[in-house]
Predict the 3D structure of the following.
Amino acid sequence: MASIMPADGSAQKKITITASLFMGLAHIVHLKDYAKGVFFALTEVLFLAFSPFIVHKLVELVTLGSPQPDLPIKQRGNSIFMLIDGILLLAVIAIFIVTYVLSVRSAQSSYAEYCRKKSFRSFKESANGVFGSAFPVLGLAPSFLMILIFVLVPLLFSASVAFTNYSAPSNIPPNNTVDWVGFENFTTLLGGETSWSAGFARVASWTLIWAFAATITCYFGGLLVAVLLKESKIRFAPAFRIIFILPYAVPAVVSMLVWKNLLNGTFGTVNRTLMALGLIDEVIPWLGHPALAQFTVVMVNLWAGFGYFMLLTMGTMTAVSQDLFEAARIDGANKFQVLRRITLPLVLYQTMPLIIMSFTHNINNFGAIFFLTGGNPTVADSTTTSAGGTDILVTWIYKLTITLLKYNYASVIAVMIFIVLAPFAIFNFSRTKAYKEGEV
Amino acid sequence: MNHKKSSGVINSFVVYIIFGIISFFVLYPLVYVVSSAFSPGNSIASVSIMPFGDGFTAKHFVHLFTETQYGKWFMNTLIIAVCTSLSTIMIASLGAYVFSRFRFVFKKSMLMSLLILQIFPSFVGMVAIYVILLRIGGLDTLWGLVLVYVAGNIPYNTWLVKNYMDTVSRSLDEAARIDGAGHFRIYSTIIMPVARPIITFLGITSFTAPWMDYIFPKMVLRSVEKQTLALGLFSFVTDKKNDFTTFAAGSLIVAIPFIAFFIITQKAMITSFGGAAVKE
């Protein structure tokens, strides 16, 4: 055994090769770092012990099982289970590879340390090293496992389903198998079948219009009220503020269902009241006519959402430094000029990340649409696509999954949402202080 | 500031009119819910267009607790909300502490992935979550639902708490380390108390979310006695039956604590919102 290592760095290559041959080998043989070496070696032994099982699961991931019409349904292989198990295993393999790379790097850095200090780490130091990293590892373990199983694997599953034919009526396990189909679903939705691609284009553009309109109306509604409350100095300002917070405080499922009933075309209170007052002769289909329903959901959302931006902009205005106002006043600016040239630009700048967050939130605002209209009213392509006039992409995903069992199309839409939204998240991330200072 | 009393930017008479109109629209549905909850009728069609126009009865409240599972739904939701809130606080703050105070490989990419993961609404992976719960026996159980919620909460909240902890001075930890405190001691007795504002925020947001969620309870909880309030309330006003007054009574019981809480904390919220925005 090479008990005396050259301390001049010349054994670097040897260490790298030994470390790459088997995890932990270099730690044990060359570096006398037994605690770490045994840990790494056990990881690899465990992995190798399970390798036949892993290979079997990976084969299943590729084939997704073959039809077994002669077997009773309960004994047939379930393609969906195979898909999920396969993805979970891919994650495990990825973790293993990362650990492998880390073990090689750790051997290299231990050797560099040896070259500096001319002595090996004592067992105590080595054990301390392992023990010291126990806290961060244990601290992250719960988050890591939960995210892996309930966030990452489901998302990867969803993304994979976009490339399969997992849909009713003929590809629902366990009765039938599911197969990989490549980009077929994407081509169908993006231009293959007229009703589907027209439906997709319609829902996607309405989603963007909705998210834009919902965010802008709530933001400027809230800002207007905040400015009025702050600048006008009326006597009952606190009382009005409490009233204006109320919609934000009521759970959305409650307020949206209430509005749904109030705005009901035939027996809703709003129409009955307007008729009793003699303002209208025929009922107004608030939620029954596509364009009017779209307008109504934006308005009801304004009702529910302006309170949040009122609080937000009030807070930001209060936090703006008083020195700025003082300086502007000394320069002879009147109140309106201060408001237009200083307060509003500053508030807008400060709240920009929250506006973007609100935009992405509205793209996925399931509750505002689902409880109020359920995506209705129906339009030309609704019979095929199940998407109504006010359905946004997420409510459509829900319908595709729950009602139509078209998991493949639902997944394609989910992938699209992700592609559209990721840049916004990265933009917000790049604005954070930690990122700018490069210390993340 | 107010050296010329009448020179406010906007005439206060106009402001009163604007506020009056807004208040009317804001209060209209809310007053209507209160009046319907005490109205003798059943469906929305039978309720008078004048609030409190057709008498006063408490029978819907009695009905809720005697003939429906309302009390059970309320307890279920409360249990789910408390468990979700506590677990989220524990797991996210521990992860945030590690991210804030330790250096390790792939830290930047892990943080970046957390941020990207939170963009996806968690129900996109609904089918997979259903299958996973099925395999670990978590379907139709409250803990299954809590697991789903907590996992969904972790990415964004870890990120949020980590950013807050970064602003807490490291000299505090160092002083404690010199005194011989271990990582867990520093985390639980020094960092957590200092981070109380963000932890409170986290606790509240993860407590309130389950009261309004519909999709996951609908998928996970099958039996009637295991359902949550959102499912229960929704079931009163489906397309098939319209029990609007019962729904209104049930909604009132949930909404009142929420409203009371918001009114009490509104000042604090304005400050924290302002602080959050300015601090980025």
Observations:
- The CA atoms of residues 214 and 230 of chain B lie 6 Å apart.
